Fold this protein.
Amino acid sequence: MTDPRSSNSGNRSNRNANGAKPKKRVDRTSKRLEGKRQMRRMLTEQLEARQLLATAPQLIGIQPNNSELLTSGAVRNTAPNELVFRFDDVQRIDPSTLAGIRLTAAGGDGRFSVATAESDFGSNGRASVQLTGLVAGQTWTVNVTSASLGVGSAPNLTVNGNALSVTLNSTAGSVTTANQLVAVINSSPALTGLLSARLKGGQGAALLGQSATSSFSPILINQNHDRVITPGAILVGQNPNENEVTLRFGEAL
């Protein structure tokens, strides 16, 4: 009589010999590998999409009053009431960043320029220091005083909005010179990108504050005909035009 258990064991051995179970293991392994490949593809696609969104918006064109795009140097005889800024298609403009768009109009001279002013800072004409505002449309008021700040002390600067207070050193042997004032203004973190100074004429070693400060202070840095235009409304386009920003004006520019 044949033992059934021996027969079943033999059948299992035959199935192993026929390769049925190993084939199933191979199939499961292939599915796992394919799943991993799909996951890698998905992660790669997501990363590429994030990289595209992280790129700064690229301005494609500006369209006034739904007419032809503006081109550099083009002259328009009709002032627009609306300007549409179009950026690259992958962008979705964040409304909180709209302050980064600034419109500046040239003055009656038709030229864009920044405000400048010159002063001898009480050097009795021995030096001329030019101060230049670096932001279009912004003016400055410079108030100058003189005080004994100590041996070797540089002039003191205080910035409050668009007002600059300068205290020249009057200490004997350490009187502020034109070169020192220029260097202090240009190295001030509070004035970086806002105001610069240079020696336009005369001697860099000229002593400043040799005449009453009331004779040359305050210094007004306002010789600028440019003007910043404030739109009546700034709108971000609705889906699918979220890469557009529209500036509307109450009257023609």
In short: Residues 59-104+231-248 form one domain.
